[in-house]
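Quick note —
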Amino acid sequence: MTHVRLYSYGAVQEVTGSKHILEVDGKKILVDCGMFQGRREETYNKNKNLPFDPKEIEVAFLTHGHFDHTGNFPSLIKGGYEGVIYSTPATYDLASLVLYDSAHIQKRDAEFIKKLIRKGRKDLKVYGPIYDEEDVTETLSHFVTYPYNRRFKVFDKVEAEFYDAGHILGSSMILFNIELDHYKTLKVGFSGDLGRKGLPFLRNPQKLPDLDYFVLESTYGNRLHDDLSTVKEELSEVINSTYKKGGKIIIPAFAIERTQEIIYHIHELLLENKIPKLPVYIDSPMAVHATSIFKSHPECFDRETFKTFYDKKESPFDFDGVNYIVNVEDSKKLNYLKHPAIIISASGMCEHGRIVHHLRNNIENPANTILIVGFMAQHTLGRRLADREPEVKIFGEKLKVNARIKIINAFSAHADYNEMKEYVSQFDLSKLKRIFLVHGEPDAQEHLEKVLEGVGVKDVKRVFYNEKYKLA
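Predicted structure written out below.
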């Protein structure tokens, strides 16, 4: 008799650090191994010490290249995992960027804090790095890639298949077909991060086959996004109003997908003469390299992108005035800009990287605008800005938030609760035994649970840390 269990060690009652285990007859399949993001000390301790023994994992999967799903695979390898990490080809390319960038940032931030301590800041403490570039190189050697919609054998009794999640380049949902006794098959789906219809570049999320169990993210389980059609109008207003004040628009953005979406919309607005020509600085080595990867994976794009740009032999990511910044010295020169400009920089939640420096240098100037274009987890600098706290601490220094804070919710690449309801409604709900909710804060999950029950899902369960759920 085949025994199947599900349990999670991350992204339960929270939206960072995804780590889910599907256990089949004692063999453990790890889905994602992301970095937890939050308070500095808690973040270090949670990421440094994995809550399970990596040597007990049989095989690992990566749904997509975002940091909260891929960022701690090097710790898995350092802990003794010797198996394969399955992903799509585009996810592998993006994961390589994310992991090398993470190793670099950990090292650089530790050195910066040490410098502040040497200058007298005795209240600070050095954390990290958790892993280095050599660890990343070893991790990448474990990857094996498969395209969408090609079933492959994982081990005895288990086959897997990637479906397009429509979230970021290469993002996938995973279908596990598990052979039970008496010629029965158990179908278990993992949503990864579920995307939205109509996002720039990407195809819409594919429908998974009818399932027995669905592990569903719930990031926006209690929110509705603004319509995607409002993005350009709101972005135009921000750029024009800030330009008139002579200020800068500072945009903390994930280097993967969000940055490219913003560039795409700015390019469109320029072509339509709806904004003035002003310099746009992409100040993130990872974003620069990610854009190159986007160009090399046309298999992930929708028909509209080909019709608008590629059929005309143009790139949505290149136009007069856009500047891709890799060199540190060029990044530092942005501190002395005296004219209006747009600066897009990572990290998306403002916890580390070049964006922290740009915020420190610009946040007290009322002519500037801080544009929030993505979800900000609890206890991050990004969340404190999104909550419009009047004062924030950056590198231990208290700064007044005099710059305008503007939030555009329509940019989200996560499905909202109506979009998740619509997606789930495609299934034969009489066959669906249960939906497990992960990757969401408690209030979001509570609301989404009621929404899904309202459309006929007979059992919705919020997953708790290390709580075991029997599937067969």
